[in-house]
Design brief:
alpha+beta; Rossmann fold; Jelly Rolls; SASA; Sialate O-acetylesterase; Galactose-bd-like_sf
């Protein structure tokens, strides 16, 4: 009896092993959309040298797994169809030892949607969310979100599942991707599948392969610095036995001496001074965690007394309690509080003097702490009255009231690089598992996390694009997958005077990539950003502009205008106008200004490598703009347009558009 039970158990084990050996990546699931018009790879693993049969809509294709168990078939190109079909995969020949079945499959257009937080920004946090979610009953649009994962080596299977677009599923999905896909579906009248691989705060090097970074001299140090930090960390761990048993984060010790530290009459002149918004863990207290207090005095007009005030404090990492003249006005905690804009109300009855002391208790449990965001997101004003706004950006007093050592928690022995900042790690964990699932193209919204190295962004992005095209290796013309990127939106306060800008420089690199790399295009968002929020809520227009590019450049509809006015050349206007340059534009049919005023946002350079000043004036003439320099500057001179973090707002805000209402791209024309 015992022997028979043992034999039975062995038989069950063998059958289970055989069945479990047939696996397909997570990108294959019920409700998926397959790409029309090109061959469609289906791949996975089975027992070595086992026969695999794939059936779909009357087609049947076989393959033999190799000695490692890997197999792949390529289904012939199909036409778009709203009629659901079933995909079956069988391993083991006629005996059908293992079988996978996927139902409700449509054939249409598949787009890969990737980048950082502005691509990942969800519908439920975007403009008109309630109405958009209620109207999102689009079962012909299918959604696949790859979970945020980072790995040092490529993953073959991945995670996730396809879902039908509905009011129940669209809220937590990418707004840009959804509005892009919705317009395509409506205009092309075919099913649309959207594959999302975004992760907030991610630099582009995380989406490239390690091999391509190592092969490019300008990019090698991304990998070299990471490897060096790994070695240093290994040495630190080796010298600190038991570090694994340390707590994950510090615990808030609770309010202590709050009344004194929040009081308006406290003498804080011996406190450190720190400009905010910024990360104080990166600056004065970069080697400390714990409880911090920040304070600032502000004088308000007498007319504000007795009015309710709005207090905005950008984003704070992690939790905070805010006080005005010793009275608590708000606090923020909960899940991921560092993503929350601090918006507090000072009650009218507490506004009884023109001298206000704003004090904020902040608890940083570990890692990077500080007050982050745009200077434009730090201010106080009467409720609903932005015209009387007083900025709170600039110097604050800062005290590390309860210092806590990073080496007393486990994160002090973890790599300082966040998972999504590690070179190639998202390429391995989020991109590799969905390749070579056939798709039409890629939409990309990223760049904010590469501002510190904008000079190498063009080189880096070309590596990312070619890594992905090589990984997919689609047949024929599909090999050069269309890559549609979003140029960074306007953000932070507009400049009083023209000058240098890391945001403008990175936008210029984005434009260079689009101009010089095949099948790569750019949609501008320069007029739809938010000075106070790095995540502008108008994702509908971003998705629409990307869809315009797809419809013209990918699907060949030449009636679509997909680009705003684009700089081509600058030239001296002539001897009779020594202070004037003529700036020529493409895509400039109906060149005009968005507000009917004269063109704004032009700056000229006094001399090579010299000071930039605002142009005296500008005027439109056909498809060109005549830019007039101030007295004392003669052509030829260098010209910039929209060259600032936020060139859109303020009295010098850019306003050039074409007849389609699309804004002109920022540019610089150097001597």
């Amino acid at each position: 009896m015992t022997n028979r039970l043992s034999l039975f158990a062995c038989a069950v084990f063998v059958l289970s092993l055989s069945a479990s050996a047939l696996e397909l990546p997570a990108i294959f699931s019920d409700h998926m959309v397959l790409q029309r018009g090109i061959s469609v790879p289906v791949w996975g693993t089975a027992e070595p040298v086992q026969e695999v049969t794939v059936k779909l809509a009357g087609m049947e294709v076989q393959a033999i797994a190799d000695e490692k168990g890997d197999w792949r078939v390529d289904l012939p190109a199909m036409v778009a169809s709203f009629k659901p079909v079933v995909l079956t995969v069988e391993a083991g020949g006629s005996s059908g030892e293992a079988k996978k079945r996927f139902e409700d499959i449509l054939v249409g257009e598949v787009w890969h949607c990737s980048g950082q937080s502005n691509m990942g920004w969800v519908v439920s946090n975007s403009a008109n969310a309630k109405e958009e979610i209620a109207a999102a009953d689009h079962p012909e649009i299918r959604l696949f979100r790859v979970p945020e994962r980072a790995l040092p080596e490529p993953d073959e299977m991945g995670e996730g599942q396809w879902k039908l677009c509905s009011p129940d599923t669209i809220g937590p999905f990418s707004a840009v991707a959804y509005y892009f896909g919705r317009k395509l579906q409506q205009d092309l009248d075919v099913p649309v599948g959207l594959v999302l691989t975004s992760w907030g705060g991610t630099p582009a090097e995380a989406f490239a392969s390690r091999a391509s970074l190592e092969a490019q001299p300008q990019l090698q140090d991304y990998v070299q610095r990471y490897d060096k930090d790994l070695d240093v960390l290994a040495e630190k761990r080796a010298g600190s036995p038991g570090w694994e048993e340390l707590p994950t984060n510090h615990q808030d010790p609770g309010p202590d001496d709050t009344e004194r530290l929040a009081a308006p009459d406290l003498d804080d002149r011996d406190w450190a001074q720190q400009s905010m918004p910024s990360g104080y863990s990166q600056n004065i207290f970069r080697r400390s965690d714990g409880v911090f207090w920040v304070r600032r005095k502000v004088t308000i007009p007498e007319s504000w007394i007795g009015q309710s005030l709005e207090l905005r404090l950008a984003r704070i990492r992690q939790t905070d309690i805010a006080f005005v003249n010793g009275h608590e006005v708000g606090r923020t905690a909960g899940e991921n509080p560092h993503y929350v804009q601090r918006n507090y109300t000072v009650p009218a009855e507490q506004v009884d003097t023109t001298e206000l002391t704003i004090a904020v208790r902040i608890f940083d449990p570990g890692g990077l702490g500080g007050v982050f965001g745009s200077p434009a997101a730090m201010y106080i004003q009467p409720k609903g009255n932005a015209e009387e706004r007083i900025s709170l950006a600039g110097p604050w007093r800062l005290l590390n009231h309860v210092a806590m050592s990073p080496d007393a928690i486990r994160s002090g022995f973890e790599l300082s690089w966040g998972p999504n900042h590690r070179p190639a790690h998202l390429f391995n964990a989020m991109i590799h598992p969905v390749a070579p699932f056939a798709h039409r193209g890629v939409i990309w919204y990223q760049g904010e996390s590469n501002l510190g190295r904008h000079e190498s962004y063009d080189t880096l992005m070309k590596k990312v694009i070619e890594d992905w095209r090589t990984l997919w290796d689609q047949p024929g013309e599909a090999r050069e997958t269309p890559f549609l990127a979003v140029q960074l939106a306007n953000y932070t306060s507009p400049p009083a005077q023209p000058g240098e800008s890391s945001w403008a420089s990175l936008r210029d690199m984005q434009h260079t990539t689009a101009k010089t790399h095949p099948n790569t295009y750019l949609a501008t968002a320069i007029d739809i950003g938010d000075a106070a929020d790095i995540h502008p809520r108008n994702k509908q227009e971003v998705g629409r502009r990307l869809a315009l590019i797809a419809e013209r450049r990918v699907y060949g509809d030449e009636s679509v205008v997909d680009q705003g006015p684009t700089f081509t050349v600058a030239e001296a206007a002539g001897e009779s106008s020594p202070r004037t340059m003529r700036i020529h534009f493409d895509h400039a049919e109906g060149l005009a200004t968005s507000n009917g005023e004269t063109p704004r946002g032009f700056a000229v350079q006094v001399e090579a490598d010299g000071k930039w000043v605002w142009a005296e004036s500008a005027e439109i003439e056909g498809h060109s703009v005549l830019v007039h320099a101030p007295e004392g500057i003669e052509a030829p001179f260098a010209v910039r347009y929209g060259w600032a973090n936020n060139p859109t707002d303020g009295p010098r805000g850019i306003n050039l558009v074409n007849a389609a209402g699309l804004p002109a791209f920022p540019f610089q024309a150097l001597q």
